[in-house]
Each structure stands twice: as C-alpha cells, then as structure tokens.
Amino acid sequence: MSSVQLPLTRESVLEAHALIKSRIHRTPVLTSTTLSKLASPGDTNVNLLFKCENLQKIGAFKIRGATHALARLTDEELQKGVVTHSSGNHAQALALAAREASAARGFNIPCYIVMPRISTPSKIAAAEGYGAQVVFSGSTSAEREAEVRVVQERTGALLVPPYDHAHIVLGQGTMAIELAEQATEDFGMPLDAIIAPCGGGGMLAGVAVACNGTGVRVFGAEPREGADDAWRGLRDGQRVDSVKSLTIADGLRTPVGLVNWGIISDKSYVSGVYTVSEEEIKLAMKLVVERMKILIEPSSAVPVAVALYNEEFREEIRNLARGKDVNLGIIISGGNTTIDKIIELFGAKN
Amino acid sequence: MSSVQLPLTRESVLEAHALIKSRIHRTPVLTSTTLSKLASPGDTNVNLLFKCENLQKIGAFKIRGATHALARLTDEELQKGVVTHSSGNHAQALALAAREASAARGFNIPCYIVMPRISTPSKIAAAEGYGAQVVFSGSTSAEREAEVRVVQERTGALLVPPYDHAHIVLGQGTMAIELAEQATEDFGMPLDAIIAPCGGGGMLAGVAVACNGTGVRVFGAEPREGADDAWRGLRDGQRVDSVKSLTIADGLRTPVGLVNWGIISDKSYVSGVYTVSEEEIKLAMKLVVERMKILIEPSSAVPVAVALYNEEFREEIRNLARGKDVNLGIIISGGNTTIDKIIELFGAKN
C-alpha cells in the first residue's frame, strides 16, 4: 500500500471512524444477565457488554480495516486495483470494500484475492460473489506471498495486508469508539475495560490505540493450544513470529504482526494477554449461541472464555472493581461458521 | 385476569409501549443483502428489515405481553400472584415479568407455572430460575387447565393467558411500533408491510392492531404441515379451534385464539395468511442462521420462508411495489433452541 501512514493515535482512529462510518454497520451491543453473572468473580459484579461484529457486513470486523485502508488511497493509487492473500474474512472484506469504493469513486477497482488451491469452494464463491478475482496458489505462506508478487507485477495492484498495517489497525480500532459510546449512551455503563481476541493483532492493537488515554483498560485473549504466541512473546520479551496450531479458533492461528507487536507489547496500551483451553472455548461458544441467540465463530468465544474461566483474569477484574461494578466490553469478532461446522464441533462423535 | 380490558386500538398499543419500554429491550433491526435479494421477485426490489425478538429478554417477544398484562393489574390484584399454563416462552416471560414487577412494586408477586410432568428439565429449570413455582399436570389441555383451576382455588392467583387476551395482544403489538420507527429513522426505509408468524395469534393480532390506519399491510405466516389453522379458517370463514401437528415450528402448534381471530379474520387488519412446507422452513432457518449470524427457533423461520418461497405471497409483494422498492418487515419471534436441537434438525441422519 501507499507509504504515507497515519500515526497510531486515538485521534487517527476517530478520523478513521468519521471516514468509514457511513459504509459500515454500527453493530449492536448486547448484554446477557446469565453470562454477566458467570463472569462475576466472588462478590464483584461484572456487566458484560458484547460488541457484535458478527452482525457486521461480511459477518466480521475485517470490513472496518479494509474500508479504511481503501479510503486512504488516492484514485490514482486505486486505478490498478488491490490484492491480498487470505482465505478468510479479510478476503471478503477487501472484495466488498473494493466494490463499494468502485461505486463511490465512479471507476472500477479490480480486486485480486490469492487463495490456496485447497480452499473450500464456499470461501472461493464468497470472494467471487463480491466481485473479486480469485488467484490460486500453494498453501504455505511463502507460496501465497510469491503469488501475490506475481499478481502485482502483472497488474500493478497494491497489496492490502490483512492485519499488519497502520490503516488496517486504525480501521479495526473504530469498533472501540462505538462500543464506548454505546456502553455509556445506551446502557449508562461507561466501560472500565475491553477484552478482544488476538490473532494477527490488528484488532487488539486498534482497540488499544482507540482507548489510549481514556482510562479504559485493554486485554487480549488467545487459545492456549499453540496459538498463544502473544502470551509467550510477552513472557519472553520477544515477538514470536510463527504459529503452528490446530486450535478450533481458526481465525487466531496467526502470529502477531510487527506493527501490532509494538502496541501489544506496551503495557500502557495492552494490560495483559490471557489464554484458555479448547474445551473452555467450546463451552463459551455454546453459552453465547444458546443464551445470547447469536452465531459466533470459535475465535469470538476466546475472550468470553477468558472472562468466564481464566482465574488470573478474573482476579485482575476483581482488582479493577474497588467496591463498584465493573463494565467489561467483549469483542465478538465474527460469525463466519456454518451449521455443518457446528455439527462437526458439537455433534455426538465429539 | 381483571375484567377491565383496553380496546384493541393503535392508541392502546402506543400506551402499552409507553408503559413497558423501560422494562424490555428495544431489539435491534437487522438487514441482509443476500436475503433481500432472494426475497425480491422478478424486477421488484424488496428490502427486508428483521425485527430481532430473539434478542429480546428471555429470547422471545413473549416478555412484551406478560410485562404489559402485569402493568395493567393493581397492587391488590397482584397480591395473590399470577398463574399460567405453558411450557414454552410464555412461562419464562411471566416468571421474569412477575419478578421484575415484584421489585418495582415493593412486594412479592408469586408466580405459578403449570407444566406437563413430561416437560424437559431445562424448561422447568428456566422457569424456576426466574423465581417461579412450577406445578405439574398431565399433558392434555384439559388436564393443564384443570390444574390451573386447582392452583387458583388454593392461592387466589390470577390467570395470565399466553395469547388470547387484549392486554397480551397489545403488549405484543409494541414490537411493530418500534420496528416502524427503526425502519424509518435508522434505515430511511419506511415500512410497506410486515409479515409475522401465526400460532395462537397474539403477536399477529397485536402487530395488525398497531399498524391499523398507518397504511402498513400486515401478513401472517404458518407451517403448512397441520398447523395452517388460520389459513384454513380464512378459507372456510370459520375459526379452527384445534390443531394437531408435529411441525418443526413447535411454537406454532396452536389454534388461533378467539380474541385474536376477531382481528386476524378481518381483511382490514390482516391482508392474508400464507403457508410453507417443513423443508422450506428448514432452508430459511439455515439461511438466517448462517447469513445473518443469529440463532432463531424454527417458528421464526416461517415468515422468512414465506417471503423467499411462497409464490402467491411474492406476487402480492410485487403488486405492492408499483415501480419502487418494497420495505418488508419480518418478525423474528424468538431464538429458544439449542445446539443439540440444531444437530437433531440438521445432522447427518436427517
């Protein structure tokens, strides 16, 4: 993408929000008496406020970053199109953002999505459904990145990375601006803290930047099963740059990006990262689906599981209380799963 | 209940809304580009606006009617408590409404729920969880009603019926007031019509009363599989007073109540009732869960299925268009299902 980058400040997130808010949904914030009770440690009362990005366009928060990244590019820069490598939510996000930017700017912005040849047909169809051109590659990171370069040489398209770029981070951060407003205005519950899932870290970093200086504490959540790279990185004082994991939280099988690590490893931005087991993720997912009546992907259940089951985190929240309720925002990042996947996860055989 | 009943007018629905709105959620209205496209017949553009009562307290609209019914009773009338026979959403609704009314009025309002002995433990636990006293009975209507009379004789509790009472109807109608406001204010899409599921008919009648005189057309939706009693009643000009059906839309296995039939059979209130097959209900349910990322019970999929698959209804909508978009509100009545039930409905064996 363009080399001009906005600084990672709350001011930039507010600017990003002003730019994109007419193109995205202001997703609902839901509450649940049952889950709030389960998240309340001892005699501390916790009010959970769920920011439902599963009800966002394309079913995930990724549309925020992609829309913002494109909004920051000039007509000239967009003329030759955009490209990314992703088989997940970022692919659909970029495809839809490119289609909407084409309509807004009055010329066609080609969008190329590099996907492994073995991607499921529904994911390929989804990207194509938003008007993207899917280009196939091998399955390793190296093969996918090589194919991106081939596309760039052929077309001149700009790479819009899935998470490790300031404009993506600032776009994702906009959800925290809305959540804080909604918590105060709609519920009379000003936020004390937010917990968000951490994969590549674009969202967690964005939320942390958005909250910086506001007094709202920000926490990250990871699957313990191999994808706890941020947790390990913080423990060892060094970013972990690869992840090998089969966690059911498949959106989080990614190491934290370099830009994002700068934010996430800074205690004044992110107060801590907590991990949960696969079983805890499943339990939390079931509770959210059945009690809150929303469909979420396993990655979205990770921060919920931390709030319900991680004793260290619960102790941290209890310390925040100081004799009053704690209002804890939880980011529900997406809902891109299917009934077949639910059956696979929760069916009799499992 | 008390014999003083408000008239079934839009004015009464507005009064009901003013009374209950601080006690219920103003549930979100969601849209879906994919489903709107599927609901658009030929060259007519239909915008679907989904009123998500599955995200209501207790996971269903029934809290509206129960809260309103209690709000209309005096302290003296409530002193000896309330009773109903239901194993479904109305049981939980009355239990929660009684608990909240107890807190508001400063004295305890006992709530008795008569349930068949064979009810699933989770439903019994849910009613008890809201503080109700569960009283067991046989499974037939006659046995349940007899047990209600026993409770009434013993305690003096007032019966709050699940659907066939003016105050219940008016309470349910409040969702249409909100939906119409949200469609205009949040989406700039003033409603042309609303379609709602029809079981006992309390909600459909309430919505019809709320819309009366506003120009918004109201339609009902039923499962064709045995529970099409309103459809048959309209065809034959006579209310059908019993239903025997194993439709998966289990919330709609009820004949239309007498009060409600007066409204539903009047063309100036309800423009028509349309039916769909079990397979269509399942298809619509899957689409809503997977595309809109919300959990709905099969009954809620019935009006969606009508909008997508009933050719007669689609023709009706096309006639409403007159060269412009049609903004169609769809009532998502509830989400009281479980992952186990989803597996049962959609698992490999089925």
Explain this structure.
2 copies of one chain form a homodimer. The first copy, chain A, is an alpha/beta fold. Chain A folds into 2 domains: 10-61 and 166-346, 3-Layer(aba) Sandwich (Rossmann fold); 62-159, Rossmann fold. The first copy, chain A, is 47% helix and 14% strand. Chain A is built from 15 helices and 10 strands. The first copy, chain A, has helices at residues 10-20, 33-38, 62-71, 75-78, 89-105, 121-129, 141-155, 166-187, 202-211, 229-236, 258-264, 278-292, 298-309, 311-321, 339-346; strands spanning 29-30, 46-52, 82-85, 111-116, 133-137, 158-159, 193-197, 217-223, 272-276, 326-332. Chain A has a 6-stranded mixed beta sheet, with helices on both faces. A 4-stranded parallel beta sheet of chain A has the order 5-4-3-6, with helices on both faces. In chain A, strand 7, helix 9 (202-211) and strand 8 (217-223) form a beta-alpha-beta unit. In chain A, helix 1 crosses helix 8 (166-187). The longest helix of chain A has 22 residues, at 166-187.
Distance between the termini of chain A: 44 Å
Multimer state? homodimer
Poorly predicted regions of chain A are none
List the strand order in the largest sheet of chain A: 1-2-10-7-8-9
Mean pLDDT figure of chain A? 95
Beta-strand proportion of chain A? 5-15%
Largest sheet of chain A: 6 strands, mixed
The top level CATH class name of the largest domain in chain A: Alpha Beta
Count of folded domains of chain A: 2
Order of helices and strands of chain A: HEHEHHEHEHEHEHEHEHHEHHHEH
Greatest contact between two chains: A-B, 23 and 23 residues
CATH-defined fold name of the largest domain in chain A: Rossmann fold
Question: Over all CA atoms, what is the radius of gyration of chain A?
Answer: 19 Å
Q: Could you give the count of β-strands of chain A?
A: 10
